[in-house]
Every structure is written in structure tokens, then in C-alpha cells.
Amino acid sequence: MFCNTLAKENRGRSTKVFSCLLLFTLAVMVSLPAFSASQYKDETTLRDAANVLTEMFKSDSIPQGLLRKADCIIVLPNVKKFSVGVGGTGGRGPMTCREGSDFSGKWSAPAMYTLSGASVGIQLGGSSTDFVLLIMDQKGLDAILKGKTKLGRDATAAAGPGATAASTSGNDILTYARSKGLFAGVSLGGATIDADNDANQRIYSQSVAAPDILRNNAVRATDAGRPLVSLLNSKTGQ
User: Fold this and answer.
1) Which residues, including other chains, have CB under 8 Å from residue 16's CB and lie 6 or more apart?
2) φ, ψ (nearest 5 deg) of residue 72
3) Which residues contact 60 (CB under 8 A, 6 or more apart)?
4) For the chain, how many structural domains are there in total?
5) pLDDT digit string, tens, across residues 117-141
6) Which of 77, 97, 111, 126 has its CA 20 to 30 A from that of 196?
């Protein structure tokens, strides 16, 4: 009887410990972007995003035609993965959209966004991963601009096709990742994307909503964001 009681107590302690670890993991996952809360780090992220895109174009692992068809793009450099009982991911990076009602113009000033998810990136096997998301239609963009977008629920998302693929599969968002070597299509179902309003205020020295940055030309790209915009314009003939 005593042994049974002791075993039950031990199981109870184990459950409580696991629950605490789980809560701690989720708390860290949610707060990860806040760890980089400074204008210097915001600007570093913008420059890193331009470097990621440069490498993407060099590797030619994402169809160039898809970029020309995309309404918007999100680049998330150095997204961190961790695991305490469960896996987690947290990171952030800029989003920019093509101007005009038909998304055929130049690329907008970038707005900062965050990515979080309980299982994102586990299949990649790396602790730091670059992500590129192509928003292919108005539905995907509307979901992103609305805020706290959960991929797979608010907008369809699928692993992006390789460089030789001819079809976009009709998904709202196509997702790619690079942890080692070339970019490859990867599933981000269940990940959440949301605007980083604090970072946007630091970058532009004023309170400005992400939709106003991306669709209403409320601000112009800063020195840190200009290389990203210029690179995209050069690849789409702007």
C-alpha cells in the first residue's frame, strides 16, 4: 500500500514538472521576438533578410516566376528552434508587398512580422533556419493583414515547389526554408504570423500600422530596409 501511494505521488510530481516545462516552453516561444527589442537589432534583421534573399536568388532553388506572381513576400532570417519537452520556434522578419491594385508595381517599404509555432521547423533538424513565404493571392494577404494569422486555418499554406515546378498548387501562401544548403519547400501548418508593431514604430520613428506600410505607402523604406526593396525591384523589372 505504501509503495502504491509513493508511486502515485511520484507520478503526480512528474506530471507537474512536465506541465511546468511545457508552460515555460510556450512562454519563451511567445516572448522570443521581444528579446531583440532594439532599433539596432531591427535594422540588423532587415539587412539579414536582404542577405537571405540574395542567397536565395543565387541558389535558384525557388522558381523566379513565382516571385513575379507573388503579391507579397515575408523573409524570416535566423529563426530559432528550441525544445524543452516540446519543440518550439520563434523569429521575425520583414514583409513587403507590390504596389497597385493588381500588385504589379514596385515593392513597398517593409513591415516587421513575427513567426511562432509549437512544432515549426522540427523536421529541419537545425537550430537556426531562414524562412521565405510567398503570399500568392488576395485571400492570403487579407489574412496576414488581419493579424494573428494561423497558417492552415486562416490561409492555406503549402511547401513551395522547387525551381523546375510549373504549378503553385492554388495555395494562398507558399513556404520555403533553409537550414543547411539550398532552400526547400517546407510545411508551416499551425504556425502563427503577426505584425510586430513595436518594431515598426522603432524602425520608422512613429506609430504606423502594418497595413498602412504595406498597402498605403504611409512610410518610405529606411536605409536598413532599402537593400531588400531594391533587390526585389531588380528581380521583378521595376
Assistant:
1) none
2) -145, 165
3) 163
4) 1
5) 745 444 445 557 899 999 999 999 9
6) 126
